[in-house]
Amino acid sequence: MEQPLSPLNQGLNPLRGAPQWGQLVGVPAASPAIDNRVGQPFAAPPGALPLWLALQPYANARLCLFEVDRPESRNPIPIRRHVIDCFLEQSGIVSGYNDTALTDPGDVLLRGYLCRSAILPVSTSNTFDWLAAELNWGTPGFRDEAPLPWDPTLLGTVQAPCQGVMWLGDLAQLLPQGGLPNGGRAQFAGCQVMHFGADYGPGGIGLLVQPLLGEAIQLVLRPHSVLVLREGDTLNLIAERYGTTVATLRRINPQLESTQTITAVEGDSLAVLAGRHGTTETKLRSLNPVLQQSETYVTGEGETLSSVAAEQNLSLSLLRQFNSELSSWPSEEPLPAGTTLLLPLYRSTTPIPAGMQLLVPGYLPSTQLPAGEWIYLPARRSAPVLDELPDPAG
Questions:
Q1: What is the pTM of this model?
Q2: CA spacing 20 to 30 A to 378: which of 12, 52, 91, 304?
Q3: Within a domain: 85
Q4: 106 CA to centre of own chain
């Protein structure tokens, strides 16, 4: 007996071949009175699925996306997670000719329809709780909405572009308690949603069809962009294995940015602490305002930013950081005599007083990471941040 192809390979064909297809996608007459967010009654045979759940039995992917407070900012803060079941089909592979600011060569282009969604808090003790078989689902076919933390009278939801992770496979394998299902044919990867909503053509077909099957969604799957941690994994090992740095891994994984308080001992300096805790001097200064103290320096005739930096044993970038008004001043052009500059009080090798309380990154490069959790890996074409000093404990 011939086995039918899976919905993943057939696309919409199994649904079109079903006896109830005509009833499922029968288009109602356009009417201003129709609320697209509310299921409308229609004549359907006994046992037929509601129109807005037509694709749920064929859903082949679950997404976990992050809604942030200010999508346009450089460092947006996640405020909640959106879990979305959707029906997807592959529409292409990103190459060097059609990549964009939101994609990388090798990304897989996917498009389809949203079947159902739910909202979970950002904080969780189980990072795979979004893969629980059943959740508190919201309005079928639409992104769920919830009050905004800064104004409970307003509703907010996840907006594109947004990033997250996805599990592409048979949703029947999902367990009641969540967790990554055991199956080699499924794929767990990072994703970037490019667009929610249908493509509105001259005839407005998007407005007419989209509410019948759920919100349209376009995204890319990013292979090898997330890593499920194994026993013994550390930041040092992962950075070496994947050609990146500890600082880069921390930057793209906010959960690794936890801090701890230490007490400086005799002989500590910024360079020593940065090496010991697998971070950078800039990061230590940002965590500890006390290390941002400065002293004044008055320039003489003919002095330049480069000459002052060399004389004071500073990097040019650090000197500009403490004197932001001179950020565009040419490094070799003489400064007006008598210019007052700010110089960092604590430089790379300046002794830090013993007993000073300081914040440092919580995860040392040699600290074992929790097995079974997942972290992001940097994009293949992105440049890593500054290399780290070796970790003496590693």
A1: 0.63
A2: 91
A3: yes
A4: 18
In 3D space, the residue among 85, 150, 94 whose CA is nearest the CA of residue 113 turns out to be 85
User: Which domain range does residue 312 map to?
Assistant: 294-344
Using CA atoms, how far apart are residues 277 and 349, in angstroms rounded to an integer? 16
Residue 317 lies in a domain: yes
361 bridge partner residues = 259
For 238-265, what is the mean pLDDT?
A: 85
Looking at residue 208, its pLDDT comes to 52
In a domain, 369, yes or no: yes
Q: Are strands 259-263 and 357-361 parallel, antiparallel or unpaired?
A: antiparallel
Verify that 350 and 339 share a domain, yes or no: no
Q: Are residues 68 and 217 in the same domain?
A: yes
